[in-house]
Amino acid sequence: MSEIIQGEAGSFYSFLSDGCKLCQQGAKMVLFITGICPKDCFYCPVSDERRTDATYANERKVLSDRDILEEVRQMDALGTGITGGEPLLKKEKVIHYIKLLKTEFGPQHHIHIYTSIAPDREMLKELAEAGLDEIRFHPPVELWDRMDDTSYAGSIAFAKELGMEAGIEIPSIKGAENVALFAEKAGCFINLNELEFSDTNTDAMKAKGYTLRDDVSNAVIGSEEYAVEIAPACEKIHFCSSSYKDAVQLRKRLIRIAENTARPFDEISEDGTIFYGHIECAVNDDLKTVSNELLQMEVPSEMMETTADGIDIAWWILEEIAESIRSPIRKLYILERYPLTDGLIVEKIPL
Q1: Which of 43, 142, 270, 318 has most Cβ atoms within 10 angstroms of its Cβ?
Q2: CA-to-CA distance for 340 and 258, rounded, in angstroms?
Q3: What does residue 11 show for φ and ψ, rounded to 5 degrees?
């Protein structure tokens, strides 16, 4: 048995694949190929909005290759995780994007994929030749007690023969112990994710008797404890807690993006959001006039930026000059926003 290492926010592991290491750093771009999937897993957390045949790079909808390349550069990503839905339903698109990323960012740009399909040798060879570094299989629950008799056994063996890191990724629930034993025999790693409630799986989860662990988390009661029981029997295991995904992975990714995209006057928070001031102008309020007023107050030009509906400005400067710049046709705010393209505004504080 390998040594179990306690990670952040309740996670633990005896082995981390390169894809997981990038997650730890917040250095992985998430490439969501399609929301279409032939499986009907009761715990699937994919939102209704994403359950369409559309592609996203992080939160950016992909309309061209340039969108993907810009997203990688924006966060200085060291790798990409390909997911869905079922990404291999769009095999040609997956192969195209792998080649695109490897060509643009070099062979060191690590790429891994999640799939519920057990590809044959021919498909795996295509993926390996395109440059795929790691593959994680997601077998449906009804197969967990007879994994040796499924096509996943062959797929894992083929993937390893072709030089890819291979593993299994499933939620930490009853039956996962069978998959863990299979992973040991197959010589691959296993990632157990803490089971979580989402907007789209709540009814199915409740119907199966799952309940929330507490009032401040989406995690299911008992999921973490189940992983702890399984861990001693596994040579290569990683338990990813619900709080780790939210408090560590997402936060580090946001910080990485913010550090690469923040304007001189944006303040980056510990959570990776950005704070700035905003002067919202009415239609009949000339933006150039407002900008000139600010310059007359000796606000440095690099400390403000004209937008479609007003002017963004350093929040501490806006707070200081609020009474001087205020008018009946202007609204003054301090905004907290995710540092993404069209990022969600977390808080809007009127001044």
Answers
A1: 318
A2: 8
A3: -80, 160
Q: Which residue has the tokens 């992975």?
A: 249
The shares of helix, strand and coil residues in the chain, as percent rounded to the nearest 5, are 40, 25, 35
Could you tell me which residues come within 8 angstroms of residue 123 by beta carbon, excluding any fewer than 6 positions away?
A: 88, 91
Give CA 224 to chain center in angstroms. 21
Question: How far does CA 203 lie from the centroid of its chain?
Answer: 24
CB 274 within 8 A of CB 262: yes
Q: How many CB atoms lie within 10 A of CB 213?
A: 20
Q: What is the mean pLDDT of residues 213-217?
A: 85
Residue 226 φ/ψ, nearest 5 degrees: -65, -40
Listed in sequence order, the residues at least 6 apart from 168 whose beta carbon sits closer than 8 Å to its beta carbon are: 136, 137, 138, 139, 152, 156, 179, 182, 183, 188, 189, 190, 191
What is the pTM assigned to this prediction? 0.88
Task: Note the pLDDT of residue 8.
Answer: 83
Query: What is the spatial distance between Cα 188 and Cα 175, in angstroms, rounded to a whole number?
Result: 18
For 305, the 3-state DSSP assignment is strand
- The stretch 68-89 carries a mean pLDDT of 96
pLDDT surpassing 60 at residue 1? no
Q: What is the mean pLDDT of the chain?
A: 93
Decide if 266 contacts 274 (C-beta within 8 A).
yes
Both tokens of 224, joined, read: 């973490």
> Comparing 23-37, 126-140, 186-200, 330-344, which segment has the lowest mean pLDDT?
330-344
Q: Please compute Rg for the chain using Cα positions.
A: 24
Q: What is the phi/psi pair of residue 288, to 5°?
A: -65, -35
Are 218 and 198 contacting, i.e. CB atoms less than 8 angstroms apart? Answer: yes
